[in-house]
């Protein structure tokens, strides 16, 4: 098959000079080479760089990695992690800190640009409407003082199959790299992490430092199917509230993140209460509820009479949610897949459907978002309000479009920088039935 001239213009291994014009989703910047989009790692919008082409298979775009900065952005800083810096060969750079060469405040500004762009392009929201609802990505308390370092209470390390050496993966690869330290990890994690040790037969090493319990190392052996630490119950403090969670289960990694998200959901519910659009005794739901953090935030705003059901497919997390929500007599924790649970609700008696229509649904899906199927079910259930907590801005934006087309209005949008030095951040969008 003949290849177009564009297709032949770049080949893996080429080194090209690129002007970086913007930021894209996924922690890469955008440039153009003879009309073709190039996603460039380790660059900053406004820079001119020399970059090594690492992927040129697709007609519409190529990928490249910065190897030299010709004109640096004023926001460029020495990388917070020497093993991730452009001083190293691209294949030897460690992953997990892809914004570590950018000034912290500018990282937040770029994350805000990504959210606004996604909400406009995939969510169909006009720039003017967005400007009135969204005022930028908010920093976690203490991060500016600490330059966004030392925040992680959980870190996953990997073990090289042949050498047994422990470390993080290289960027976009499954190759273990040797590192001297983990600058994003908190002190306890740093003390326990077995960096550079040889651990033959082990597959992954999770280092977990709960806020109200001893740090620990969870080993998953090669070929083992069960998750390490799924029965190990640890205590976490959120403000003055104690939660129990599985050491190997889901919990936000930034020391401030559980409290920030708890407060943001509590405040969103308080606003709905002031508006008169939240009903405490309706069929309220906390979907993808984990150990019940966000249902408890609903309870903090609505009080002891709150009725809420958390839905989560991890049985251990559901057990913990039941315990964490014990003060709410109207709280129920259900182990189920969200789509299956919603199918049952759609088949429920009219009185139950009516209570759901008056209800508020908090949802906090994994990175892929709720997705078309679950959103279609939610639209059929037609709750009064949805509080959508999202770790992927594009997935949020796609689901936003479906909700708006179904008659919901986006009434508030906030975002939180709970993953400094990476491209990740968390958003909370509130939708109300028009
Ligand atoms: C992003 S976490 C949120 C947990 C909780 N809201 C919190 O803040 O701690 C997503 C949760 O959804 C669960 N989950 C993922 N897919 C699911 C599904 N299809 N049905 C039910 N639970 C699911 C995961 O086990 C995880 O606990």
TrEMBL record:
Family matches, as InterPro entries: MeTrfase_TrmA_CS (IPR030391), NA-bd_OB-fold (IPR012340), SAM-dependent_MTases_sf (IPR029063), TRAM_dom (IPR002792), U5_MeTrfase_fam (IPR010280)
Name this polypeptide is given: tRNA/tmRNA/rRNA uracil-C5-methylase (TrmA/RlmC/RlmD family)
Superkingdom, natural source: Bacteria
Keyword hit for Transferase: yes
Keyword Secreted assigned: no
Annotated binding of S-adenosyl-L-methionine, by residue: 252, 288, 312, 364
Species this protein is from: Leucobacter exalbidus
Family indicated by similarity: Belongs to the class I-like SAM-binding methyltransferase superfamily. RNA M5U methyltransferase family.
Domain TRAM: 9-68
Molecular function GO terms recorded: rRNA (uridine-C5-)-methyltransferase activity
Active site per database record: 391 (nucleophile)
Keywords associated with the record: Methyltransferase, S-adenosyl-L-methionine, Transferase
SUPFAM superfamilies listed in its UniProt record: Nucleic acid-binding proteins, S-adenosyl-L-methionine-dependent methyltransferases
GO biological process, one term: rRNA base methylation
């Amino acid at each position: 098959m003949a290849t177009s001239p564009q297709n032949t213009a770049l080949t893996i291994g080429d080194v090209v000079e690129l002007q970086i014009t913007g930021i894209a989703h996924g922690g890469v910047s955008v440039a153009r080479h003879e009309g073709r989009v190039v996603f460039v790692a380790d660059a900053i919008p406004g820079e001119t760089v020399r970059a090594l082409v690492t992927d040129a298979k697709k007609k519409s775009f190529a990928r490249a990695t910065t190897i030299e900065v010709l004109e640096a952005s004023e926001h460029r800083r020495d990388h917070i992690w020497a093993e991730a810096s452009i001083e190293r060969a691209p294949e030897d750079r460690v992953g997990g800190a892809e914004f570590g060469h950018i000034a912290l405040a500018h990282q937040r500004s770029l994350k805000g640009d990504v959210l606004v762009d996604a909400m406009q392009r995939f969510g169909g929201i006009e720039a003017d409407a967005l400007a009135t609802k969204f005022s930028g990505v908010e920093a976690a308390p203490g991060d500016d003082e600490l330059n966004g370092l030392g925040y992680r209470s959980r870190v996953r390390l990997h073990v090289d199959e042949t050498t047994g050496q422990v470390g993080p993966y290289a960027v976009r690869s499954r190759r273990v790299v040797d590192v001297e330290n983990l600058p994003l990890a908190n002190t306890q994690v740093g003390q326990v992490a077995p960096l550079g040790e040889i651990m033959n037969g082990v597959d992954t090493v999770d280092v977990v430092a709960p806020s109200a319990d001893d740090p620990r190392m969870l080993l998953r052996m090669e070929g083992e199917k069960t998750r390490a630490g799924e029965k190990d119950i640890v205590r976490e403090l959120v403000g003055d509230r104690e939660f129990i969670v599985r050491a190997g289960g889901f919990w936000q990694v930034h020391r401030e993140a559980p409290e920030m998200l708890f407060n943001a959901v509590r405040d969103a519910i308080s606003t709905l209460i002031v508006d008169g659009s939240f009903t405490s005794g309706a069929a309220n739901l906390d979907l993808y509820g984990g150990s019940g953090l966000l249902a408890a935030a609903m309870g903090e705003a609505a009080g002891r009479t709150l009725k809420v059901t958390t839905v989560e497919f991890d049985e251990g997390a559901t057990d913990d949610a039941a315990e964490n929500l014990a003060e709410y007599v109207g709280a129920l924790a259900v182990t189920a897949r969200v789509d299956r649970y919603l199918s049952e609700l759609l088949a429920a008696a009219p009185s139950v459907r009516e209570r759901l229509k008056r209800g508020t649904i908090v949802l906090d899906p994994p990175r892929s978002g709720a997705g078309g199927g679950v959103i279609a079910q939610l639209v059929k259930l037609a709750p009064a309000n949805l509080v959508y907590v999202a770790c992927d801005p594009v997935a949020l934006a796609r689901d936003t479009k479906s909700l708006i087309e179904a008659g919901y209005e986006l009434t508030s949008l906030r975002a939180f920088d709970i993953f400094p030095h990476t491209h990740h951040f968390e958003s909370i969008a509130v939708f109300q039935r028009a």
